[in-house]
């Protein structure tokens, strides 16, 4: 029940009990032995915020701004594939939340709801996340389709030249498109609450490819993307161009000089390269390299409102939550999602009071 959610850990715990093993491990899993995911969490836990006292913090403002648009919350929604596995209609729940909070909804290339109804439900607060695949033919068709649908921001994800091996999902035979074999049937039978509510409403599919000319193979190599690919995308896309999956300061400078509009520091939730550095640990160096004016976004490893403040303190100008929102949906449906969002905002607001800040731009690293 939604009322049992008091933190993102609670949402994950309840989701783990309710979801089939295959689905939970697809959402929760990370690359290899998952030491990268542990490193991400340890890096956040090692950071501290500086408490300050006797400051009037009675009026606190969590609003931020992204590409000139004011947001009610200091974080948005990361693009996530196949969200409807966490609960029927999950994509649209996230879109409605984005509309209510006036924050960006990342719409994944492999979303389980098509890009057109999602930007409509989000009332325009949606960014289309793009994977380059194969020779790029289908990729650039999706760019044109996003433009026609009214998207103003494209997020090019660059940290998946090859799909990382995530043993937990591989053990369960997870595939996209979603297929049900004997092993999956048994798994679903042992989780009847999810099965009755989810599968009976239709098997989740990669909705952006349910029409002629838009084929996508999740396992197809994406290794042919290069700086010329970026230049071609920049030339054809008139709106905001964000590059997501950046962990190297030198690459960040090259992206800035190539004319991208924002850089998103991310390790894809530790789902691709197990040995990647914790993004929060490289954020200060990237900020120093690109200068104070380059828009710098952050995701990966965020689990609380305090984590959000740590990212802002180290140079981020906006942050994004991912899988914990799916866990909230699995745990309590749309009510659970809204409850966790309020909790994350409350955590950030309370922490701001503790450190003597009334606005995000007053959050500073520990000296």
From TrEMBL:
FMN binds at residues 79-81, 108, 129, 157, 244, 266, 299-303, 322-323. One of its GO terms (molecular function) is oxidoreductase activity. Residues 1-367 form the FMN hydroxy acid dehydrogenase domain. Its cofactor is FMN. CDD domains: alpha_hydroxyacid_oxid_FMN (cd02809). InterPro entries: Aldolase_TIM, Alpha-hydoxy_acid_DH_FMN, FMN-dep_DH, FMN_HAD. Keywords: Flavoprotein, FMN, Oxidoreductase. It holds the Pfam family FMN_dh. Glyoxylate binds at residues 26, 131, 166, 268, 271. The active site is at 268 (proton acceptor). Belongs to the FMN-dependent alpha-hydroxy acid dehydrogenase family. This is L-lactate dehydrogenase (Cytochrome). It comes from Yoonia sediminilitoris. The lineage of its organism: Bacteria, Pseudomonadati, Pseudomonadota, Alphaproteobacteria, Rhodobacterales.
